[in-house]
Amino acid sequence: MHESSPENTTIRILLVDDHPLVLEGISARLESEPGIQVIGQASNGQEALALAAEMNPDVVLMDISMPVMNGLEAAEHFHNDQPDVRVLILSMHENREYIVKMIQSGAAGYVLKDVSSDELLRAIQTVYQGGTYFSAGASEALFSEFGHSDQPDKADTGLTKREETVLKLIAEGQVNKEIARTLNISVRTVETHRQNIKQKLNIQTAAGLTKYALEHNLISL
Amino acid sequence: MHESSPENTTIRILLVDDHPLVLEGISARLESEPGIQVIGQASNGQEALALAAEMNPDVVLMDISMPVMNGLEAAEHFHNDQPDVRVLILSMHENREYIVKMIQSGAAGYVLKDVSSDELLRAIQTVYQGGTYFSAGASEALFSEFGHSDQPDKADTGLTKREETVLKLIAEGQVNKEIARTLNISVRTVETHRQNIKQKLNIQTAAGLTKYALEHNLISL
DNA sequence: TGTCGTCTCCGTATTACTACGTAAATGCAT
DNA sequence: ATGCATTTACGTAGTAATACGGAGACGACA
Question: For the segment A99-132, what is each residue's pLDDT rounded down to a tens digit?
């Protein structure tokens, strides 16, 4: 990882935002902090990637919505091409989808644009040290989903219990004959269930059924 | 939320750990910090809940494994009964299951016991302000599960490029005829690919192929 | 140059699945 | 007890997929 005593080291930051005003504002706030150095600015993801390759920043502080290449794509590229760079997203969107996507794209943190400079500083230090930071709104949005919404909530499929059972077995890759043996019913019955399921879900292929089952948390990988 | 300038406010902390030594050590380290005040100590979850009800701490810094009532249960109780209290878990376990469970129980953060006091301080401030904090090891463990973690790591499948392409289409639910049209090849060719794929992967059904494709991140839901 | 792997295509026979339909037994609710 | 959904099962016909097989074109690499 990085240094063991980060407060003694200067964290080199690349700022990425398509609004010059925002860029300047944040830059000014950060520059006044000891231990923080803004080594570059970019106005879109493409620029950011190029600049980062040159300057090798510790942390990229980046907006999501940008022209040319948005923060999402950029984060992915960073993650693949320059994995040492920690990407901290600075966004106005409190949208769960966004946040989850960002994390999946390899971002190390997500702070909302209404945070105090104090909190922003802390976020930067956190991600710099390898941690993960979500500001209040972000973490609420995030964990209300997978966190403590108790169950992986099996959505209502409109299927009967038996049909769900059959669907699971299909999704797991069993053929009708195996399913019949498993459930101690005839192959014909399995076929009937299979038909009904496909009809109800409007899905044509076995592969599609598996995908459906996974999407709806009937089975897991 | 709380104060807007937290560095001017004293964060009142309740320490919970069943090892007196750990309790003292952390207490000493934290007390030397301005802005932090350890207002109480408890040696198990039950004590912690009782003490917290009296003293109304801002942050509960708590171990997981404890006698009488462990951190998990305690966190749940805090979440339900004293939701204003921010629970920060201090654990030696880097186990994903643990971390996920803690979050589901309403913990606001999870730091490993090997963190620096500097990082611990930052974690405390973060959760105090309503954020979520995971130290490096914790966030790695956490997000390797539900997100993406490091790479979507398209594992080596032993399949050729063409076969992977076909597999993707199969997994998406296309039938051979559609795949043939999509790729501008004959149905027979698709069949051949399909056979080779199944043979290589030792999978019998289309559903199984879909599952495989998902497991190996060839497609996503 | 020659071999190897890949991609392409086809034939034949068999098996699995689909699309329709029918219908009996069961359990649950009104 | 009657009605309704569910689960079970079968018939027939057709389509899709599989299990074998062979084979030509092409590029990479030795």
Answer: 766 776 778 888 887 777 777 888 888 888 777 8
- Rg, chain A, Cα only: 24
- Regarding whether B112 and B70 lie in a shared domain, the answer is yes
Query: Do B74 and B114 share a structural domain?
Result: yes
| Strand D bases within 7 angstroms of protein beta carbons | 5-11, 16-22
Burial B11-39 (b: 16+ CB within 10 A, else e): bbbbbbbbeeeebeebbebbeebeebebb
Instruction: Say if residue A139 is in the same domain as residue A166.
Output: no
pLDDT in tens, A69-93: 677 778 877 877 777 888 998 887 6
Selected residue of A89, A110, A133 to mutate for chain B interface (largest B Cβ count, 10 A): A133
The distance (Å) linking the CA of A171 with the C1' of D12 is 28
Amino acid at A106: G
Does B210 contact A207 at a Cβ distance shorter than 8 Å? yes
Q: Domain check: are B21 and B89 in the same one?
A: yes
Is B69 contained in some domain?
yes
Q: Among all strands, which nt has the closest C1' to B206 (CA)?
A: D17
Share of chain A above pLDDT 70, in %: 79
- Measuring CA to CA, which residue among B42, B104, B46 is closest to residue B70? B46
Is residue A106 assigned to a domain? yes
In a domain, residue A152? The reply is no
Please tell me the predicted confidence (pLDDT) of residue B97: 63
Q: Does the distance separating the beta carbons of A147 and B104 come in below 8 Å?
A: yes
B12 lies in the same domain as B112? yes
**N-terminal to C-terminal alpha carbon distance within chain A:** 31
If one counts the domains in chain B, the total is 2
Whole-number Å distance, CA B185 to C1' D19?
A: 21
Which among A98, A113, A143 is the end of a domain? A143
Q: Within this chain, do residues A138 and A31 fall inside the same structural domain, yes or no? A: yes
Sign of the torsion angle spanned by Cα atoms B27, B31, B35, B40: positive
Average of per-residue pLDDT across A129-157: 57
Q: How do residues B27-66 score in pLDDT, each as one tens digit?
A: 888 888 888 889 999 888 888 888 888 888 999 998 887 7
| Structural domain range at position B32 | 6-146
A158 in the Ramachandran plot: left (φ > 0), alpha (ψ -120 to 50) or beta? left
